[in-house]
């Protein structure tokens, strides 16, 4: 062969193609493992079940709250910036949010094109500069939270309707009351006194009945006339549905998602389970509660009528991700037994409302 003359292309030897294929597959797998995982596209708010969560509900911010209270907002912001690469520890709403995302994964497997999923929005009155630490924390725990609302010290409540919020959870009781007054389902969430393991594959939500799912009509009868008159009233009105309470719409949204699993023959494997946990007596006043749910086209998977017994021991067995009640007595009892409990400030059982203005900034942004 003369210098510079092009070489004849060589025929690949036997087995060369088959040898190259596994190497290519190995290289592709290695690259895919290095590449960041693509997160699902966020649904349109009007198509989804929107859960708005405050930063202090999602994460533990006790030290930051102390700095804000004792040293003011400037020192608070400075501290957050200095520690922005340190993820926050999980807060009381964290297991609930993880359970919502587990349900979303199942829904997307069954309905890849549907936007009828949970959409989690972080709603906080933090300043935008603090957002970097929140984003870093969300990415650290691999949470799918793409929508943020950071209002720089102002109340975020006015934005909740724009996000089509189905439920708002916060550690700030005044903001929760503000949301309830605006007709938005909301609750103040509390950390349990001790940690109890909850399901990683099934979302479990427990509701009180009166002044949570239902109106406070019956509680008003008890308060004004006593239990005997209440029992008489419920018997007479057994077939008259109660008016709706603040969280009826959230139960309705959960029921809608449950039916998507039922339609695929997965009722027994449904990753959402709901509970009615009420102080009502079954024989004396339970029928009206169940018939009210039926009249709405709703149901809970389990109904527990405790006839005034403490709710904490039953909740310890259920191990819900969250339990909603309108009475702090029951919230505290649930906390003691390791349940994440949320107070719904609605109805006659609440303490008298403030009649004088309060200082706007009473908690860390």
TrEMBL record:
Query: Composition bias, kind Basic and acidic residues: at what positions?
Result: 1-11
Q: Name one GO molecular function term.
A: magnesium ion binding
- Region annotated Disordered sits at 1-22
Q: Which InterPro entries match?
A: 5-nucleotidase (IPR010394)
Gene Ontology CC terms = cytosol
Q: Which GO terms describe its biological process?
A: adenosine metabolic process; allantoin metabolic process; AMP catabolic process; dAMP catabolic process; dGMP catabolic process; IMP catabolic process
Question: What PANTHER family does UniProt report for this protein, alphabetically?
Answer: CYTOSOLIC 5'-NUCLEOTIDASE 1 FAMILY MEMBER, CYTOSOLIC 5'-NUCLEOTIDASE 1A
Give the protein's recorded name.
5'-nucleotidase, cytosolic IA
Name the encoding gene, please. Answer: NT5C1A
């Amino acid at each position: 062969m003369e210098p510079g003359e092009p070489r004849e292309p060589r025929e690949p030897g036997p087995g060369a193609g088959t040898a190259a294929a596994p190497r290519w597959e190995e290289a592709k797998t290695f690259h895919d493992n290095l590449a960041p995982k693509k997160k699902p596209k966020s649904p349109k708010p009007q198509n989804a079940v929107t859960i708005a969560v405050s930063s202090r509900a999602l994460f533990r911010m006790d030290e930051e709250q102390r700095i804000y209270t004792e040293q003011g907002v400037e020192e608070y912001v400075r501290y957050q910036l200095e520690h922005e690469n340190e993820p926050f520890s999980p807060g009381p709403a964290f297991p609930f949010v993880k359970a919502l995302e587990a349900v979303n994964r199942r829904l997307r497997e069954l309905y890849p094109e549907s936007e009828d999923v949970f959409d989690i929005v972080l709603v906080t009155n933090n300043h935008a500069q603090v957002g970097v630490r929140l984003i870093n924390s969300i990415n650290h725990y691999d949470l799918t939270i793409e929508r943020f609302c950071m209002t720089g010290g102002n109340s975020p409540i006015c934005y909740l309707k724009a996000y089509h919020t189905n439920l708002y959870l916060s550690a700030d009781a005044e903001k929760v009351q503000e949301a309830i007054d605006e007709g938005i389902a909301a609750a103040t969430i509390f950390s349990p006194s001790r940690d109890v393991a909850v399901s990683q594959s099934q979302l479990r939500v427990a509701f009180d009945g009166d002044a949570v799912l239902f109106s406070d009509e019956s509680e008003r009868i008890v308060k004004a006339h006593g239990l005997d008159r209440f029992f008489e009233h419920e018997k007479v009105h057994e077939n008259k549905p109660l008016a709706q309470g603040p969280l009826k719409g959230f139960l309705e949204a959960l029921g809608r998602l449950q039916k998507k699993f039922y339609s695929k023959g997965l009722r027994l494997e449904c990753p959402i389970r709901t509970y009615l946990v009420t102080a009502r007596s079954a024989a004396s006043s339970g029928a009206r509660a169940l018939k009210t749910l039926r009249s709405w086209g709703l149901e809970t998977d389990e109904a527990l009528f405790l006839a005034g017994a403490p709710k904490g021991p039953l909740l310890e067995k259920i191990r819900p991700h969250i339990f909603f009640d309108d009475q702090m007595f029951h919230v505290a009892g649930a906390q003691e037994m390791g349940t994440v409990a949320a107070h719904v400030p609605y109805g006659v059982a609440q303490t008298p409302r403030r009649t004088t203005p309060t200082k706007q900034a009473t908690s860390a942004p």
